[in-house]
Design brief:
By secondary structure, the chain is mainly α. It contains ten helices and no strands. Helix 7 (135-152) packs across helix 10 and helix 8 crosses helix 10 (185-203). It is elongated, with a radius of gyration of 21 Å.
Length: 207
């Protein structure tokens, strides 16, 4: 059986029927955990730098963040319309960053103790300006999206992927994409929807 026929057997419309990344991670799937960490570590590291964590300490904070994610992922629920995995991850990262600065404040005769105290006060405010999205945040999120797209591309037929790419990434009109690919407009819309659903599953609903 070829790879294309295997994909067709899984999903005749060209999409993947795999569980979401978070669902697999909840089942202690090692590959899912590795994908989760690979996707989101750059974003968490960016937040840590923005909050003032020293570069040499970021790896330690990342370990604490993802350890907490592993411990509490079963309890993550989208109870309100605005609940997202990214927002939940941000809260955990902020809490672990607070812990980091508390330790620095409590260290006897620690150099920069006053600075650590100021950083702790800043990170403690969830509405401070530094926590709001900015251009750097958008760039990191774009990187996360690119990684996710690369990870799922092999789950789709080439024409399905081209239909999604033309409409979503290039912003072209469905009818034009359909004409170029010799597809029906409805088929293009289905392709777009299936790839977007798979992308959301891979990201754990980043948006």
């Amino acid at each position: 059986m070829t790879a294309d026929s295997a994909r067709e057997k899984r999903d005749p419309a060209g999409g993947s029927t795999s569980r979401s990344l978070l669902a697999d991670a909840r089942l202690d799937d090692q590959a899912a955990w590795e994908r989760l960490a690979k996707l989101y570590a750059p974003l968490v590291a960016f937040w840590c730098r923005r909050w003032g964590v020293a570069d040499q300490d970021i790896v330690d904070v990342l370990q604490e963040v993802f350890s907490a994610v592993a411990s509490h992922l079963q309890g993550f629920r989208k109870e309100r319309a605005g609940d997202t995995f990214r927002g939940w991850l941000l809260t955990i990262a902020r809490n672990k960053t607070r812990d980091y600065f508390r330790r620095r404040v409590d260290e006897p005769c620690a150099a920069g103790g006053t600075e650590a105290s100021l950083r702790l006060q800043q990170v403690a405010d969830p509405h401070r300006e530094a926590d709001l999205p900015d251009a750097g945040d958008d760039a990191i999120v774009d990187g996360v999206l690119r990684q996710a797209l690369e990870a799922i591309r092999g789950d789709f037929h080439e024409r399905t992927w081209q239909a999604f790419w033309g409409v979503v990434v290039e912003g072209r009109v469905v009818a034009d994409v359909a004409a170029d690919l010799d597809m029906r407009p409805g088929t293009v819309r289905v392709a777009k929807s299936r790839v977007l659903l798979r992308l959301r599953n891979e990201l754990g609903d980043l948006e």
